[in-house]
Every structure is written in C-alpha cells, then in structure tokens.
Amino acid sequence: MPPDAALAALAAALGVPYDGPGVVVDDVHHDSRAVRPGSLFVAVRGEHFDGHDYASAAVAAGASALVVEAPLPLAVPQLVVPSSRRALAVVAAEVHGHPSKALTVIGVTGTNGKTTVAHMIEAIARAAGRVPGVIGTVGARADHDPLPVTRTTPEASDLQRILRLMIERGVEVVALEVSSHALALGRVDGLAFAAAAFTNLSQDHLDFHRDMADYFEAKASLFTPARSRIGVVWVEDEWGRLLADRSPIPVRTVGTSAVCDVWASAIAVDTRASRFLIFAGDRSGEVVMPLPGRFNVANALVAAACAIEVGIDLGEVVRGLETLPPVPGRLEVVPGDRPFIVIVDYAHSPNAISAVVAEARLVGARRVIAVVGAGGDRDREKRPLMGAAATGADLAVITSDNPRSEDPDEIIAQVMAGARPGAVVVEPDRRAAIRHALAAAGPGDVVLVLGKGHEQGQERGGRIEPFDDRVVVAEEWRSLGEGGS
Fold this sequence. Notes:
The chain is α/β, with parallel strands linked by helices.
C-alpha cells in the first residue's frame, strides 16, 4: 500500500468515498487506550460501550484518522461506514498486510475441544519441523513465546496484529480457536484459512444466540469459500453430519468408522493415556497419546486430519500426538501419590460434564465425585442441564464458578433445579466445595473439579480474585493430610 495513499486505499477496500488528504496509518485499534501516534481508530459500537464516545480521546492520543458510523466534530480525516465493527476486520487486514495469506492458518470451532485440538495441531506442527503458533482460550504463543490475548478469538485489530507478529517471529502454522461470537461479530473476517475444523455442537452460549439453529449457523459460516479452503468435520455428532452434508467447501470426514476419511479403531484409555490405531487413506499408525479420554481421541483425529490437509505426513502426526505436552486445565491430573485421582477440566456445558463423568467411569473409577458450578452472566438455560449432568456422578458438589454480577446462591438454585435424585451437596464457597470432595474421596475414586480449568481467577462483583483449581486442590490436599481421607 503506497504510504501517501494509505487512507484512500482503506476507503477503497471498504467501498466508501474518500477525497481527503493522504494519511499514513501503521496500526489499527478499537480501544482508545491503546492508540499511539499514527494509529487508525475504529469507533465500534459494543454491548456496553460506544467507541464514538472515545474518539476524541483517541485523537488526543495521536490517532491519524477515524473510522466512524457518523461524522464527528474532530479535526482528523474520517471514513464513514455502515458498520464500524465489520469495517474493523477489513482495515486491520489491510494495514497489517493480510498476514493470514503468508501463514498456514487452521481454524478450530465447536462447543467443546477447541483448545485441545489447537494444542494438538501445535504439537504436530512442531514435530514436523514447522514453527507453530496458537491463539485461543489459554492464550497465544509464537512457538514458545507468549503473546498478549484477552479472549478466545481476539478482536480483529488485535488478531491481525498478532498474526503479523507471528510472521516476524518465524511462525509457519497457526492453530486458531474460532468462537461463534467471533464468527457472528466478524472478528475473523478477512482471514484466509487453509483448513477449518469442527469438533461438535451442544447447548452453550444461548445468551448470545437465539437458539441452537442460530448457534450452528454461526459455526457453519466458517465453512464457506470466502473463509476456508477445506473443512474437517467430526461426523459422530448430529450437527457435524449436517455440516458435512451441506458444506459448500470440500470436507474431510473424521470418526471411528472406516467410511470416514480419517478414523480410529482399537481405542483404549486409562487415567493417564489413550491408545488407538489411526487410518488416513492407505496409511495407518499406532498412537500412544499422553492424554486420557475417548473424546480426546476424537480431538486427536480432528487435529490429525487438519495436519494432513496442510501437508504434514502421518508419521509426523503420530510423533506429534505422542509428544503432546499437557493441555492446561483439560483433563489435567493433579500430581501426587494418593489413593484416588483428581482431575481438573474446563467442562462447563452439559454435554462436556456428562462426557467427563462417563470417561471417569470408563477408566474404572470406584466412584466419581464431581465439583460443578455455572458461570454468571452467561447462558441461563443450560444451568438445570448442568445440574442433571453433574448428578450423573456418585456424588455431586454444586458450587460457584465465576458468579460475575449475579448472586451465587441464585445460580446454584438454577443448577439444582435440574439435579437428579442422589447424593448432592451444595457448598457455595468453591474452596470449601473442593475440600469436601477431597475429604469424601477414597481409594480408587476419581474426583472431577470442573468448569474453570486453566483459569487462575474467580470473577465476582466486577473483581477477579486469585483462584486456580489446580493450586487449590494441592493446598486442600495438604491441609487434609497426604493420602486424603
């Protein structure tokens, strides 16, 4: 982009008129606090804040130009657009030189498993000698170097900047978690995906989407020619089968049947590992993966299919899965020499809770004890379903998660409304709930601490207080004495 025509080129990309002076912009921001001299500020209207109210602060901080939905009385060039949010993705991609086109970007969407699949792709790419990057729920990395990120899929301005930085760090393959919010709000508009992956769909985020059909359509929008070259779909999910049947782009199917393009057999799992045979075309391999759970075998197959589609050999796929480091807060076993096992997992939807409880039974748990809470200011409809899923355990301890602005007792009451008859304990204090579960556990039991996974804080009343389930488990174990009850 010629420096003396930068803003004119952005106007052309947006399809809006501009006949003002030539302006150079070297970065794009939607947060006025991040603006530096030479930046373009895009005034996005959000749920709680309107960026137009902060445009003057952006100009004072050095913004060279604005993108707005209505002209503002400020003495800088302005591009007027129908939707600032949609414009944000377009101008960010232009200013940063469309970095996704210079990278192999794999988008991963679905209700559960996105983080695990992204980490698996990262491990496979590294095993294949390709420098990996990952962007998602537990953060962003360029190879081993952490990068700042604030949400599962960052806003378009931040996302394009991170991708540009990844190129500068030598990254070649990027695994990007793509949330339904990101798709609906246009955060990934302007990205070129080498492959798009679908893990599964179950009830979640119905505080944002009208219904499950709307939730599905948001996910399905990743599987279009404008966004992705090819799709990889887990078809042992009703929504996955629907997506594979109607996708306008080529799809590679994944499952546990030989009718799929990538599939597995001879699956065996325990509390420490998964073993299976993987088949892709006329190739096959045996995998011993240091991550338990049949659903993680599904995640591994999705990751494998994505890797194969971007040119990674099956042997390198197997090596990557076998050297996979622990995925933070995903079926993470808290270490210790005790007569029972404690697992921390991010499961916070009804299906995810049911799946983790089922896995604990599959590996031969004498009893399953589950600590479960629902987050505040999120999908209320799923709370009774979470209660039903939690009481699939032999003992369910219902507690707080991140209550945010809601009353924790009211959230718990909604969860309990779906609880089935059985052994249920209500303990609003999450630390006390974990202590109760540990004290109740005996030899051969599996204790599941669910909902927060990798998170290191608990959000309540506008504040985030330090709280890491893994740390709290270790602390409470020590207070109870080594070996539990």
